[in-house]
Amino acid sequence: QEDTLKYCIRNEAEDRGRYSSFLKPTATGQLKWVAMTADEAAANDSAAWYITFTPQNQYYQLRNAATGQYMTYSGGIKTAAKTAPAASENWHLMRGRVDVDGQRGYWIIHPESNWTPRCLQANANGNTGQVAFNIANSAEAQRWLIMTAEQTKAAEAKAVELMRTQVAEALNQVKALTEVPHTCADAATDAAMQLQLASLEERMAAAVSTTELQSLKNEVRQAGIGFLAAGVTPTDLSNPFDVTYLLANPTIDEGTDGWTGAATVNYGCGEFYEKTFDFSQTVRDLPQGTYAFCVQGFQRPGSTTASYQDYKAGNNRVNAILYAGAKSQKLAHICDTILSRRLNKGNESAVTSGKYVPNDMQSASAYFERGLYDNRVLGTVGTDGSLKVGVKSTNMATAYWVIFDNFRLYYYGSATADEVTGVEGVAMESQQTRKETVYDLQGRRVANPQRGLYIVNGKKIVIK
Prior knowledge:
Layout: E1 6-11, E2 21-25, E3 31-35, H1 38-42, E4 49-54, E5 59-64, E6 70-73, E7 77-80, E8 92-95, E9 106-109, E10 118-122, E11 128-132, E12 143-148, H2 149-178, E13 182-184, H3 189-206, H4 210-229, E14 232-234, E15 241-242, E16 264-266, E17 269-273, E18 277-283, E19 289-301, H5 304-312, E20 321-324, E21 327-330, E22 332-333, E23 348-352, E24 355-358, H6 361-369, E25 374-381, E26 387-393, E27 400-411, H7 417-420, H8 430-433, E28 438-439, E29 452-456, E30 459-463
Parallel strand pairs: 19-22
Antiparallel strand pairs: 1-4, 1-12, 2-3, 4-5, 6-7, 8-9, 9-12, 10-11, 13-14, 15-27, 16-17, 17-27, 18-26, 19-25, 19-27, 20-21, 20-26, 23-24, 28-29, 29-30
Helix pairs in contact: 2-3, 2-4, 3-4
């Protein structure tokens, strides 16, 4: 930092104005993040801050360029008129670990002699507050990007192109919905949708600010929801509308943002060990109809040896469930998939001579990469447009382990759950069926189906 330079401050979280807003005080000294462009911020001293450093105590001070008031802590964080900074105006700046558009954000922390000092956080609707310091990478709303005006302009230009890419990706997701063979309640729906998508694409190409593009991103999402809500239903129930993009953070590759429940995340998977949990989110603004909620995952109900012995004896002690609204299915048992040779990734356990199952997060991830341990449950959305989805267990005894990855959501329109899983009146040879993804009637994937009744491509099949 340089004492004489003016710095702009914006929050790291996308939904707290990373690309569109700057920190500035109100007339009463309250701190707000306010929407403006980089050029507007550069011309407005209210959005500019002088930052000084005191070597004797290793703390920073932040003074607003327009008011001359210092950021201060007095039961809360605001600005106040001070002839000279004192202890209340000292701040510890702790750099984040994760790059954000090529730079790092900082926690602005009030110095305290404990593990949870108070720090500045961006809250909803342009507000800020003082909250307990959260060291997690996911605590984006607590970190702030501090840049000169020139750096801010360069970052905004880069952000415009980044967001244009995001809008283009969102458009492709919605276009994919229109390409699914379907019927429409109104014959004009498809033509109207194509016109709307063409207009959104034109506006995306012409947009010059992150504010415009963020608005377009929201419009694209609503366009997709509007299309589905117009009474469309897939003509082939084995090829539903893929609406996974409506889930927050479906891959959980870098953390659990968007989900409740503090899962341990590694190798792109989330896990719970000997700990009850409800890992969930509520998806809103959904059209009415039938949905399939899917995930790769399993539970090991006890030690590997005990789980295998129980499974062999026909005792499935799995208590973790995959759920969508009021509907639920047991999660796959770890022994639903047993490989005859090791994948040699991570730690695998032998359940018997020459037969293996995963025994840590790395090996589970490798099994998931092969498409194993797939689960699904069908749920229904009513007039409220919301669907709570997740994985949970209320009893995680000794050595009970649950791990999962790759959540997905599919929409079947007005088709009922019974139609989606309706019995197909054609018997199939078991060898042919093994080439397809096969589930038992509890929604668990079956690697080697024998004689009986199974679900294949969304339909019940009798294997002779």
